[in-house]
């Protein structure tokens, strides 16, 4: 994530990219701070954002937590609260349909 943020900062500084960024804890880091993988404030910020840049959320440190508190639950919470449909949006190009595990009948043909 640090490197991706550096690129965004460089684009903003050198090329005038009009972008605002905010950060919020999610996953294991959020658990360490708030004792839950997806704090309400993080969810609210994600819902109001135009885009979300998300890095790794878990690690061995949190593997022994109860299932409902594991970092991966944050991903499920973000996806289920997103206005995008399906939960993991993708584009299935007709030229690649026969080589893909995606099913053409379940592809909306766009990404949100």
List keywords for this structure.
mainly alpha; 4 helices; 112 residues
Give structural notes.
With 112 residues, this protein is mostly helical. The protein has 4 helices and no strands. The protein is globular, with a radius of gyration of 17 Å.
Task: Present the secondary structure layout.
Layout: H1 2-15, H2 28-34, H3 40-48, H4 72-81
Secondary structure category: mainly alpha
Q: Low-confidence spans: pLDDT under 50, at least 5 residues?
A: none
**How many individual helices?**
4
The topology string of helices and strands comes to HHHH
Short précis:
The chain is mainly alpha-helical and 112 residues long.
């Amino acid at each position: 994530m640090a490197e991706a943020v550096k690129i965004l900062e460089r684009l903003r500084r050198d090329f005038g990219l009009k972008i605002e960024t905010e950060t919020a804890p999610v996953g294991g880091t959020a658990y360490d701070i708030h004792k839950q993988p997806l704090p309400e404030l993080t969810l609210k910020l994600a819902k109001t954002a135009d885009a979300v840049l998300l890095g790794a959320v878990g690690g061995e440190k949190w593997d022994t937590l109860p299932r409902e508190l594991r970092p991966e639950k944050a991903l499920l919470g973000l996806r289920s609260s997103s206005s995008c449909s399906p939960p993991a949006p993708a584009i299935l190009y007709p030229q690649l349909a026969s080589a893909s595990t995606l099913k053409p009948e379940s592809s909306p043909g766009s990404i949100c």
